[in-house]
Amino acid sequence: MKLFTSKKNRGHIIIIGCGRLGANLANTLSDDEKSIVIIDKNKDSFRKLSSSFGGIILTGDATEISVLSEAEIEKTTAVISVTNNDNTNIMVAQLAKELFQIGQVVARLYDPERECVYREFNIDTICPAVLSTKEIDKLLDASEEMEGVV
Amino acid sequence: MKKRVVLIGGFHKTKSLATSLIKKGYYVTAINNNMQNCQSLAEIDKLTVFNGDGSKPFILEDANAYNADIAIVLTERDDDNLVICQLCKKRFHVKKTVALISDPKKTEFFYRMGIDSVVCAISAIAGIIEQQAFLDEMATLVPVGEGRIRIAQVPISQTAPAVNKKLWKLSLPKEVTIGCVLRGDKSMIPRGDTRILAGDILVIISSDEHEMTALKELTGR
Fold first, then answer.
1. Which residue of chain B comes nearest to A111, CA vs CA?
2. What span, in angstroms and rounded, lies between the C-alpha atoms of B164 and A82?
């Protein structure tokens, strides 16, 4: 019975791009018992997935509507686009949001300058440069405080 | 004031577009991320060329894309084209954006994302090839309104059933109009009592599905 309910609560997530971030994310989310579909253009990329990864892998170009349909995007609760190309991520995110009405869409973007393009679409974005800046700033602040104390 | 056009990406297409637009009196700027292409483009008289990735806002800024009249985006990748068009529209307030796409299935999506005009090279070329391969009797063909209406030139041969007939005697479908008759070096707007002669070239305007019926009636093929 418990198995049944836990199955029902599982989210269905599509991850696009099996790079370091994509693969790591897929491994972690798969360990959390979520059902994952991971898409990458290059089938060699899937080597980065751990052996315990229990999701579905799909080789193809996620900017093609047919590939997204094959990944059963209609049933998905979240789409995470983490390819190494910002413009691809933006387009996939907009496809997911506008064409398939996915509630939660996350895109990784290296360049925060293109914000005006996706701001109005309600797409969540992760920008490594901005995050790193904040973290480094925090570390520096912390060490300064320590010096102040000493 | 001269209208400003920004061409982004593409090389051969940009080259011929730039030449023709400059001739028509536009002020044209080209952005290309390949240095060699840029050098070749720079040989075109009066063309301003910028080297850089057009999907980066600061490059568009350098190229003075702000408030341009038309942006035509011709890179090879659909995603780049989408983002560049959106940047032009939202951040640089370009009045009209035109995008080239390679995947015909995404045409509607591009329109939905606010691109003013979407040109799908593959379906356009496939359409032309189809016409060339199957209808020798048509010289040129211009699709209008997403291909629903077509303007075609139909040469009338000696053996065509329409020869020596007056226009009102032809049983053409209602959706087909003969807009112009080209006879020798003269062109005339036909009336019901205009007689079609061998050697005439008819300019017909027709809906997509009635074109074949009209051709059959006119040329017999």
1. B56
2. 68
